[in-house]
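Researcher: I'm preparing a figure for a lab meeting and need a structural model of a single chain. I don't have an experimental structure, so a prediction will have to do for now. The sequence is pasted below. Please return the structure as tokens so I can convert it later.
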Amino acid sequence: MTKIGIILGSTRPGRNGEAVARWVYDIAAQRSDAEFELVDLLDYKLPHLDEIVPPSMGQYAQPHTLAWASKIASFDGFIMVTPEYNHSTSGALKNAIDFLYAEWNNKAVGFVSYGSVGGARAVEHLRLIAGELQLADVRSQVALSLFTDFENFSQFKPGPHQADVLGTTIDQVVAWSEALAPLRAK
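Model: Understood. Here is the structure written out token by token.
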């Protein structure tokens, strides 16, 4: 069965992303077309990139890199939950992405973002990164506004329409993950 990792891309204390990622997981887990797993970057303790050899060489030396590579390799696609910090994604998510190369290749990725403008600029940057890593980014995106989908900018209360958008995003990630399976089998 297709396996989709839901990556919680914030490690900040008091992060809004935890509630958002849990919401994504709770909706996804009701489906029967794929298996879903929540992956929290806090569980991997990745320092700032500390591998000597570039990730594209696949010669990982650090135990934390090997554990992260094994986890990411186990998935067929991803949904990345990202905040928008300073018109981009979080440094923690960018660092986690940069640790690996082949483990991302020929897989689908969708985005759930949040911020003052729904995290749109963070996703713009992630789409550029996805292209370099041979990740196929799907069109549908959940963009959560701190003004309308959070109470007092901190308590997550998504508008009812957001579940429909998330459903479309998941549909696309699952379909593209399955379509890319022959490329991953090579």
